[in-house]
């Protein structure tokens, strides 16, 4: 009988934990995202969507900027997860690669700019704990983490764009060039 009670308590406990997580989101990240989305949309409206789109087009004309500087600016200014909305200024064939680059950069930026992804700061702090224990500076680690992140997002962006374009052509969404 004790076994059945423990299973029942565990079962309901799972839903209680889910409810606590949900309430944390309702009082934490959801209002933050709504305010961020509203602020970003307001800035886009004030500046003009055409100007923002033109800036994005110029910045993303070359793949090296499209998959380094563009995600860097998005993650730095909009933070995770709002940064992914910058993809709306890109053509469809580049959106998956942009997302791949941006989502891959939310950890490497944390060492230098913790505001960009504070929820994942524990990853960087876990890595840096060994250096802190040895009394070493965290600056070089943060810089190498950042630079390595830029290299990785460039590679991921280029590869993902190549795969996306190939798949879109195969499915008939893009004309053969």
Automatic annotation (TrEMBL):
Single GO biological process annotation from the record: phosphoenolpyruvate-dependent sugar phosphotransferase system
A GO-annotated cellular component: membrane
The keyword Nucleotide-binding belongs to this UniProt entry's keyword annotation: no
InterPro entries membership: PTS_IID_sorb
One Pfam family, short name: EII-GUT
Keywords, in A-Z order: Membrane, Transmembrane, Transmembrane helix
Transmembrane domains' residue ranges: 21-44, 64-86, 136-159
Nucleotide-binding in keyword set: no
NCBIfam families: EII-GUT (TIGR00821)
The protein's name in its UniProt record: PTS sorbitol transporter subunit IIC
Source species: Salinicoccus hispanicus
């Amino acid at each position: 009988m004790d076994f059945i009670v423990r299973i029942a308590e565990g079962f309901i406990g799972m839903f209680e934990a889910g409810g606590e997580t949900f309430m944390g989101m309702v009082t934490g990240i959801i209002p933050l995202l709504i305010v961020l989305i509203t602020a970003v949309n307001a800035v886009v409206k004030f500046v003009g969507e055409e100007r923002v789109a033109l800036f994005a087009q110029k910045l993303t004309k070359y793949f090296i900027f499209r998959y380094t500087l563009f995600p860097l600016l998005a993650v730095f200014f909009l933070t995770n997860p709002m940064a992914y909305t910058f993809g709306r200024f890109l053509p469809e064939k580049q959106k998956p690669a942009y997302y791949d680059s941006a989502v891959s950069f939310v950890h490497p930026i944390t060492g230098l700019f913790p505001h960009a992804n504070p929820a994942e700061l524990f990853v960087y702090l876990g890595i840096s704990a060994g250096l802190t224990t040895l009394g070493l500076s965290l600056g070089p680690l943060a810089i190498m983490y950042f630079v390595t992140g830029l290299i990785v997002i460039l590679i991921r962006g280029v590869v993902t764009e190549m795969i996306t374009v190939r798949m879109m052509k195969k499915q008939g969404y893009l004309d053969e060039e």
